Amino acid sequence: MTRSLAASAAALAISVLAAGCGAGGDAPAAPDAGAVTVYTALDQVYSEPVLKAFQDRTGIRVEAVYDAEAAKTTGLVNRLIARRRRPDCDVWWNNEPVQTARLAAMGILAPYSSPAAARIPPACRDPDGRWTGFAARMRLLIYNTERVRGDPPASLQDLASPRWRGRAAVARPFFGTTLTHMCILYQAWGPQRLKAWLAALRSNGAALAAGNAAVRDLVAAGEFACGLTDTDDAYQAMQEGKPVAVTAPDKAAGVFLMPNTVALVAGCPHPEAGRKLIDYLLSAEVERRLAEGPSAQIPLGTDLADVRTPWADLLGGKRMDVDFALAAACVDQVIALLRETGMDQ
Amino acid sequence: MTACRSRPQPALGAAGLLTRCAGGLFGAGAEVLALAALAPLAAAVVGSFDSSASGSGYAYWWASPRGWESLGRTLAVAAAAGTIALALAWLLAASAAGLTPRWAAPAALAACLPMLVPSSLLAAAWIAALGREGTVAAFLRDSLGLRLNLYGIAGAAWVTALRYFGLAALLLCWSRLRREGGWPAARAARLPRWAAALHLGLRADARPALAAWLLVVLFSMNDHIIPGMLLVSTCGTQVLIQYSALLDPGGAAALAAPMAALGAGLAALAVGAGRTAWTDAPQAAAAGPPPRSLPARAACAACAAAVLALALAVPAAVLAARTESPAAVLAALADAREQAWRTVGVAAAAAALAAAGGAALAHRWAAGRRAGALTAAPAAILLLAAPPSLPGIGMITLFQHGPLAAARDTSWPLVLGLALRLLPVAMLLLYALWRREPAEGVLAARVHGVPAHLAAWRVVWPPRRAAVAAAALLAAILAATDLETAILLAPPGGSTLGVRLYTLIHTAPEAMTSALALGILLFTAPAVTALAALAALSRGRKAGRP
Fold first, then answer.
1. Residue B470 contacts residue B535 (beta carbons within 8 Å)
2. B58, B48 in Cβ contact below 8 A?
3. How far off is chain B from A28, nearest CA to CA, in Å?
4. Which residue of A lies nearest to B458 if distances are taken between CA atoms?
5. Going by C-beta distance under 8 Å and a sequence separation of 6 or more, which residues neighbour residue A196?
6. Closest partner residue to A74 among B244, B499, B506, by Cβ?
7. Over the stretch B35-83, which tens digit does the pLDDT of each residue have?
């Protein structure tokens, strides 16, 4: 009886403690000079190798926090806002600039002028030094070459036209780069035009997918003829030999680039290690790696003119002039407008 | 008995008083546990009245078509899934019973296997099979000219039905096994076979079938992963957006709370409809229907095999075909070893808590039923009826403030969330096994003056060990493959295998995703095998009893 009792109690205790042991790494740790915590919204398959390379080179242990495809950037942003008084994150690595600008406006990011930032054009940096852009992506119209006969869609308005009725897909615009795009359009078009387009899109039967990668998969599989996605998602389908092609929407208005953004969190526990990580991420080496890697990001550094990306033809024209801080200021109005037009249904 | 009753009761010593107090405390503790388990649900409902959305969350969702449209889509998928699941389950139950009654239980258990894998895995497999360029879709298009569209309410209902039809199969098989004793009477009365089939088959199946349909509708209603991956926006999708994107847990709970009430109603109706299936005394399964001819039995076997192959073999085969090699499966699991170990730890902890809590509640419920006393234990079923997002949001609320806030960023919210979600599963399983336990052993111990704690340890516990182990194992499998709760409660950097698969489905190449999906299937295989072995052992022991 005693053996059975001891065995049962031991089994229960080990099981209950297993979760604590397995989760120990998630608890806020005591300050450790040899570690840095980074929240990254860039897909784990792309960001993890870069962070691992930094860890191997410097010996600084990187605790990376990723988010799931469904919630993407917004989950991490909300976490930073909730933890602003006692942050557990040192470096914020976002895959777009609007949410980063929003955090900067809320005072959650600390100014840091990295020496490596000198190679990045001023238009891709915060004037107050709170964040720096690098390795950009572009919004694209992706279409299935086997399902599209004739001219592919050339503009966002085309997605709401009768020709593409029930044949277009876009990502739910409450998250990630799609939300960023909506904020930019809110600025560029104004609220009335954006609202009209969104309403037309919905009444035209456009499907709402979980994310840009889901849009890519749906178009690549031929479920839908065309959709709106990002360069890294489109590139993956092209590399896999899927029957897809891309075009930049609204070329006349200018191509819209969304840089990754990196920033130091105000009051973070490991500021020194955080600065080293930021210096590394803004280096030419990392931009080249991201450009030549599977995500085909577009380098912004002035010293990487020799790097060829698959998007050279699309980048040749006019670029849209974007004020990310202004775009960040209208996130709440954009979300209200998205709900009003049923984009959450 | 008269002689026993006339014996004077021994005076209670200190040990006896202590034992009686312990028994009372245990009973009170079980009642408190049943109510405490509902705390996250209560926290979420209370929070639903504090929405940051413009105006009240309830007004936002339910005073406009918005919430009703979402509910309509949710119920459309669920009702269609229930109907498809019932048809498949009835076919399986009838086919399996057409062989011998011994095949019914294993067939029903096999039909439950899709419930033991992550829902995203199942959806990914069926998209690979029936998507526009899917393996099976291409075959059907090229050979039969059939063009299928998996995306939409019909496709979502189909895949959801394949996930949950095992529930219906279990109920129908159980009901049939209890009715087999009616066949000898039908033969004696020389009833035509069709009349016997109508009265002993279809009519008798009506109430269990209704219960089965309601249960599948309930589970389908609370699954938003499969519809979401097939582009159907249900209430669950809206809850995730409201919580994750709009930082409005109150608004999210205002959408989920009425769903929980609806789910509780469905659960109550299911229990009522299926009452005859599990309250009637089990009949001797000696005679069964008249023996069928060999071709008829072959047809039954083929039918049962076809249903099971559809549910199990097709998705597994498609995933295997898209995986580059067995080495790729091992590589995918190696890449995910951190998530794998975390999944094992979290599942083990959650299962231990769920089994312990479920055992206490099941014991209290069974004892209360025998004594004709009311107990709060069945209230824990609300945790199963509510959408996983609602107690999840409540759990997050509880861990934001007070002493629990220190554990906010650990896996404990996830462990507790899973334990509470699976507590009613363990409780229901153990209650079903214990409610008709013979009380002679305990009475004999009492008559001979054995202290209650020794009687509990030496008389009550030994025959219950296997059942509790089976409940814990089942809870561990369900916890390891859970996605709905993990998406909300897994801390950043602390994701599980299911969440990793869900994330990689769109960001990683197909071959890598298929390899990881197959790896997860292999990961859960030993636990499922152990569960089947425990069930077989338990059946063997029951058969050996006089």
1. yes
2. yes
3. 7
4. A1
5. none
6. B244
7. 888 888 888 888 888 766 555 788 888 988 888 999 999 999 999 999 9
Q: Does B247 touch chain A (CB under 8 A)?
A: yes
List Cβ neighbours of B272 (8 Å cut-off, separation of 6 or more).
none
Other residues' Cβ atoms within 10 Å of the Cβ of residue B506: 23
Q: CA-to-CA distance for B137 and B223, rounded, in angstroms?
A: 25
Distances (CA, A) of B258 to A31, A153, A224, B71, B390: 45, 42, 34, 10, 10
Say which CATH superfamily domain A137-255+334-340 falls into. Answer: Periplasmic binding protein-like II (3.40.190.10)
Asked if B367 and B452 count as a contact pair (C-beta separation under 8 A), the reply is: no
Tokens of B41: 């649900």
Q: A35 phi and psi, to 5 degrees?
A: -145, 155
- Inter-chain CB proximity B493 and A23 less than 8 Å: no
A139 phi and psi angles, rounded to 5 deg: -85, 135
Pairing state between β A168-171 and A226-230: parallel
Give the three-state DSSP class for A246: strand
- Chain centre to alpha carbon of residue A246: 19
B493 touches chain A (CB under 8 A): yes
> Hey, are the CB atoms on B457 and A335 less than 8 Å from each other?
no
Helix, strand, coil percentages, rounded to 5, for chain A: 45, 15, 35
- CA distance to partner chain A, nearest, from residue B465 (Å): 10
Alpha-carbon span A39 to A20, nearest angstrom? 22
**Per-residue burial over B406-426, b = 16 or more CB atoms within 10 Å of its CB, e = otherwise:** ebbbbbbbbbbbbbbbbbbbb
Residues 6+ away with beta carbon under 8 Å from B361: B30, B33, B34, B377, B380, B423, B427, B431
The pLDDT profile of chain A, 345 residues, written as one tens digit per residue, is 445 555 555 555 555 555 544 444 444 444 445 899 999 988 888 899 999 999 999 999 998 887 654 445 566 887 788 788 888 899 999 999 998 999 999 999 999 999 999 999 998 999 999 999 999 999 999 999 999 988 999 999 999 999 999 999 999 998 888 999 999 999 989 999 999 999 999 999 999 998 898 999 999 999 999 999 999 999 999 998 999 999 988 877 788 889 999 999 999 999 999 999 999 999 999 999 999 988 899 999 988 888 888 888 887 777 778 888 888 899 989 988 998 898 887
Min distance B418 CA to chain A CA atoms (Å): 12
DSSP symbol at A255: B
User: B208 with B78: CB under 8 angstroms?
Assistant: no
Q: Give how far the C-alpha of residue B237 lies from the chain's centroid of Cα atoms, to the nearest Å.
A: 21
Alpha helices by DSSP H, B381-480: 382-385, 389-398, 412-434, 440-447, 452-455, 461-480
Task: Tell the burial category of B188 from Cβ atoms under 10 Å away from its Cβ (0-12, 13-18, 19+).
Answer: exposed
> What is the reported pLDDT for A30?
45
Residues of B in contact with A173 (CB under 8 A): none
Q: Where in chain A is the domain with CATH 3.40.190.10?
A: 35-136+258-312, 137-255+334-340
CATH number 3.40.190.10 given to A35-136+258-312? yes
Q: Is the ipTM of this complex over 0.85?
A: no
Chain centre to alpha carbon of residue B100: 26
Q: What burial class does residue A328 get, using C-beta atoms within 10 Å of its C-beta: 0-12 exposed, 13-18 middle, 19+ buried?
A: buried
Q: What are phi and psi of A312, to 5 degrees?
A: -55, -40
Q: Which of left, alpha, beta for A27 (phi over 0: left; psi -120 to 50: alpha)?
A: beta
Cα B241 to chain center, whole Å? 26
> What is the spatial distance between Cα B126 and Cα B129, in angstroms, rounded to a whole number?
5
